[in-house]
Amino acid sequence: MPTHPSKGVFSRRVAPFAPVALALLAQSGALAPAAKTTAATAASSLQPCQLWFEDIATRPDPAAACRYEGCFSNDDKKFEDLAKNSLCLDASSPTDLSDFKAFRELQARNDSKTTGDRSQLRAITPLGEGSIVRLAAYIKEAHVSDCPGGEAVNCVSNGFANNDIHIPLVQSPDDDECLSVTAEMSPHFRPAAWSEIDMQTPVGRLVRITGPLFFDSSHTPCTVDDQNQISARSSPARLSLWEIHPVYSIDVCDSATGTDCNVAEAADWTPYDQWVAKPGVSTEPTGKKQRQKCESAKPGSKPCAGTVSTP
After folding, report:
1. How many other C-beta atoms lie within 10 A of the C-beta of residue 117?
2. By C-alpha distance, which of 257, 146, 165 is closest to 209?
3. Measured distance CA(161)–CA(144) in Å, rounded
4. Region for residue 71 given its phi and psi (left: phi exceeds 0; alpha: psi -120 to 50; beta: otherwise)
5. Which of 33, 179, 237, 265 has the fewest Cβ atoms surrounding its Cβ within 10 A?
6. What is the DSSP letter of 303?
7. Nearest residue to 191 via CA among 30, 63, 290
8. What are phi and psi of 76, to 5 degrees?
9. Residue 22 in contact with residue 51, Cβ under 8 Å?
10. What is the pLDDT, as a whole number, of residue 7?
11. Which of 38, 19, 211 is nearest to 131 (CA)?
12. Beta-carbon neighbour count of residue 14 at 10 Å?
């Protein structure tokens, strides 16, 4: 794997394996098409995988009480939840993206909302569900999502530690959120520094988000033309139903301006957990309102649908 001696952007890969069952991910079709690992092979070996962010992962898993299948009412939702928790993919050869063209093209396909085992989504070329991308963009804001109340993938549980962090990414800091692409940080093993990004959001600086593509048919995108004219809004607002979910790494542009970094150049970026610890960096609590609402909610969870194995 590529490394950079001073930045260590890709040096975090040598810690012990994480207890994430590869067999569960294989059942979901969450393995990238290039992996060549069949569900039967994975199920028979039951090999655990190593998290891409292993050396900063939170132990024990804050969301360990929730299985990777989440709560579901049918197989489509089960496989969707497993795809949202695709933590076992190889991210050593990501596709670098400096704009949202790929997300617009994927959205234009108008894929069916009935995703089944997601094999059709994974078969899309050159990029489909499970493909690892590395995107340079600006963070519009960041906040805990579906809290209070909880989301099915996170076992409808209250609490900040049990829910995703929703990150709309834009190509220009002033862009409308309808022009955004979504990234989601899973609560499973989420690093402590990442869990503060809603309160310490980089201001006016490019970030680089790495992770697998995921098609989220549970939402509706805004209606936006090729000139970025918005004719219909959605909530949550987004340009495309294709996301980066879950986030594998987040880096911050380390240039003097914070705006002229090359997505493919390791030396231009510093991992967020290291960058935010530097004195004098500029951040904003963009998710403060949602954080306070989540933390003031009563703890608890609803009955969880679906009979499946527990990771």
Report:
1. 17
2. 165
3. 9
4. beta
5. 265
6. P
7. 63
8. -60, -45
9. no
10. 30
11. 211
12. 9
Q: What pLDDT, on the 0 to 100 scale, is given for residue 104?
A: 96
Strands (E), the chain: 18-21, 48-49, 95-97, 132-139, 143-144, 165-170, 181-185, 201-202, 206-215, 223-224, 230-232, 242-244, 249-253, 269-271, 283-284
Burial annotation 125-141 (CB, 10 A radius, 16+ → b, else e): eebbbbbbbbbbbbbbb
Cis check for the bond before 246: say yes or no (omega within 30 of 0).
Answer: yes
Residues of the chain with pLDDT under 70: 1-48, 112-115, 307-311
Backbone torsion region of residue 116, taken as left when φ is above 0, otherwise alpha when ψ lies between -120 and 50, otherwise beta: left
The whole-number pLDDT of residue 2 equals 34
Report the alpha-carbon distance of residue 222 to residue 237 in Å, rounded. Answer: 6
Three-state DSSP class for residue 150? coil
What distance in Å separates the CA atoms of residue 83 and residue 79, rounded to the nearest whole number?
6
What residue segments make up the domains of the chain, in order of their start? 18-295
Closest Cα partner for 210 from 135, 149, 289, 147?
Answer: 135
Taking the alpha carbons of 116, 121, 123, 124 in that order, is the dihedral positive or negative? positive
* Confidence (pLDDT) at 112: 66
User: Taking the CB of residue 283, how many other CB atoms lie within 10 A of it?
Assistant: 15
Predicted TM-score of the model (pTM): 0.85
* Contact status, residue 246 vs residue 185, Cβ threshold 8 Å: yes
Predicted pLDDT at 114: 60
How would DSSP label each residue in 15-63? SPPEEEEHHHHHHHT-S-GGG---HHHHHHH--EE--TTGGG--SS-TT
Question: Cα–Cα distance between 284 and 30 in angstroms, integer?
Answer: 34
What per-residue string of b and e applies to 191-219 under the rule 16 or more CB within 10 Å gives b? Answer: bebbbbbbebbbeebbbbbbbbbbbbeee
